[in-house]
Records
---
Amino acid sequence: MTTHPLLAELTLRARTEAHSRTSSACLCGATTLADRPDATVVRHADTVAKAHAPDTAPADLIHRLAAAAHLPGIFLPPLGESPVDLHGRLVTFWPYGEPVDPENPDTAPWEAAATLLARLHRTPAPPGLPPMRGPVKAALAVARLLATSRRGHAVPVLRAWRTLPAWARAETPMSDRTTLCHGDLHLGQLVRHPAPDGPWHLIDVDDLGVGEPAWDLARPAAWYACGLLSPDDWSRFLGAYRAAGGPAVPADGDPWPALDVAARALTVQTAARAIAKATEADRALDDVEQAVVDACDRMGSAPPQLAGGFAK
């Protein structure tokens, strides 16, 4: 099979960057960590090269790289703040960090993730940083669903989408335009650096920006509301965020009035992606995907900002 020119060149650039920072012999080859339309990621030794989505705006990415570079102990810092152009894609370089082990959920760093988010949300946003892209990504997932299928499972998802306020559908600006947010928080966005057992850091600047901090808590909240995250893990995450002074929820009491809209939006996004992928692969939804679609069905019959998590 012929390797795509972008992947081949990215592999070469990762090797060159890795060797530029060490004089020792390197016996390891390159590893492709991801190869999707929106991101191609290659590792060589202790260096990672990432080709960002084709529609990435250079000015926005530069501001996001600068922000990550000046958030020591929160974000993994890039190896330089200027992307390079490679086959029409913007490419950035990063140190390698050890990711969360997906095969060992009991060691998931919920407290570390929450503490990093709280620190991020409390850090003043640098000037020029664009809006956080969370609502835009949710809208893109729904657009993909509409292009794939409007029947069957799509119906409750689209109905739930229509109940959301305009800002959560990326139709109007977010009311909070000052809080620094990650924009796409999940456990795959954490790594230990230095690998393999250094402190946890956030990664992926593609959605970094200013906006509603509740969005960064929304995916764990949605998983909890859908029955996919245990009450104990949710309590660990929420408790650590509050203990670190996170501003997205009140310091005590019911967090759902603050989280409900964003959690609903992330549930719709997850369900829309799941249906689109299943349709494209001509397969049935699995149990987890069906649980998210079922949550959308409940959401469509209950008004937004209902405390208690989607009328569980």
---
Amino acid sequence: MKQVKIFAGSASGALAESIAAAYGTTLGDLTLQRFADNEMGPSFDESVRGCEVFLVQSTFPPAEHLMELMLMVDAAKRASAHKVVIVMPYMGYARQDRKDKPRVSIGAKVVANIIQSVGTDRLMTCDLHAGQIQGFFDIPVDHLDGATVLAPYIRSLNLENLIFASPDVGGVVRTRAFAKKFGAEIVVCDKMRVRANEIASMQVIGDVKGMNVVFVDDMIDTAGTICKAAELVMERGALSVRAVVTHPLLSGPAHDRIRASCLTELITTDTIPQRQENEKVRVISLAPLFAQAIRNVVTHESISSLFV
């Protein structure tokens, strides 16, 4: 069996360390040199020749950390690594998965092309904004399900009259899959945007009166949608409202909005490190899931068995 080495990019140091510990090893030594103009130059401080190399890096913010990751892949390939696997818990640009208006790019496809162009052998990620993004790649993609670690926490709350909610029509499939684990029903919030991160109107499709509502989404950015949706379901007679979100971008006013909202709590993961404390945000680590997925890749065992 080839030797396994795990390295961390600068965006995911804490998560990578937890993944390595859960796998039963320590992080490899990597130096990221920066020139005066912020140009990056990563270098491995130990041999990776003939090794299976796993590079852990969420691309948030996307541009700089994606470039850093691509340079890491290139360095590993040039150092004669046997295989290079990207472990990208959060994939930036995944929201740009189609042409939703004229004359725009499909950012997710561009990122897929870049990842493959440097010789990446495999991609491991979690809760892509749209599952079909896997089809943009011509290399194996291990698409992990964040519900594997998030659902047990919801179950531990022992909530009665539980119902799950999608904050928009596009998230219905994800919400239905989550609700199926509990044998529960779902409702949908139909929203209309005037522009990105700004909602013009919203309405609830379904009955939430007397129910404990849990919103399900893949990411939370400025928290405008979730907070408005939470307020709306409480006005419709819900007993409580929570949100389960895999990727906590939490940009701009997000934390202030969550603190001021009627959300009981936001349950999320550590795909993106938190930049400030928030008593309403509960973080559950994905490190054990990624560590087991890495182990299964190395031993050629099933990945889907971890969450199906």
---
Amino acid sequence: MRKTTATPADLARQAGRIPARPGPREVSSDMETQTSGVIAGAGPVTRPGERPTVRLREGDGDGDGTVQEPPRYAPEWLRLREPADAAARAADLLDPLRIRLADPPGRPGGLVVHDLGCGTGSMGRWLAPRLDGPQHWILHDRDPYLLHFAAVGSPRAAADGSRVTVETRRGDVARLTPDALVGASLVTASALLDVLTREEIDTLAAACAGAGCPALLTLSVAGRVELTAPDPMDEEIAAAFNDHQRRGGLLGPDAVTAACEAFADHGATVKVHPSAWRLGPDEAALTAQWLRGWVGAAVEERPDLAARAETYLAARLAACAAGELHVTVHHSDLLALARPTGGR
């Protein structure tokens, strides 16, 4: 799977990932000072031709026999966005998930959770302490640097004090078949769906259906952004950004609809709930980084916006620094309850 860079993943996935221009670069730790010019400012830090953290296709290369090094997602960005992600995730989906996970067939030793494209492990830190019972998390990512952060920072106890253990698996999720998920109680991911193609989402849905396990897929961009006070360029930037997200056949803001269809076609019951980032003065650093990536991707998609976008970005960053900017970046969380296997 190719990955184009996208918003609110992670600096990487949308409210998720923020789009970054290809090419080697460092992500600045000073998120307040760069106000001149349109910059991507956020991450994945990629080199030309690099692959994404998660792929759902066979093979490690580009189809020409080459093997790509894993991309590096900036831990600084992932750390910066984690509180906003935690506040945004749809807690309303947890009760139906808990009901489904109660006494799972064939898994008497506790829950086995596969976290796809785990990054630094923020999903596990959010979800594990909200579920009862012993849990074993299998963290998947291509970047060993991020896997180290995820393992070290993983929670050690469930909601009821039961033990939580983790293991890491480096590499592409390239063989995401029912066999790969044998014994899985749950599949999770954050900001993943919008960087997949329709074919890849169907592969994911088929794998979960074959394993009979639910999937909790959070923080997929919805394609809508609200900023105060409104500016005439808001909609123009948003439309260009959404088009950027759809490059190369990726679904971007259309992903949740496609995922609902795919999981339903495989017999799952699907629930969707909004999970917006709501950013104010207390999240100024995150807002500034998100703005740079959002505007940068829009200009990459529509270079004719560059001159006006530079003025727009400078004004928005100034308002952000002054504590006057509020931003709502809309996302959706999806819970797919596949039909159980194992005789129930």
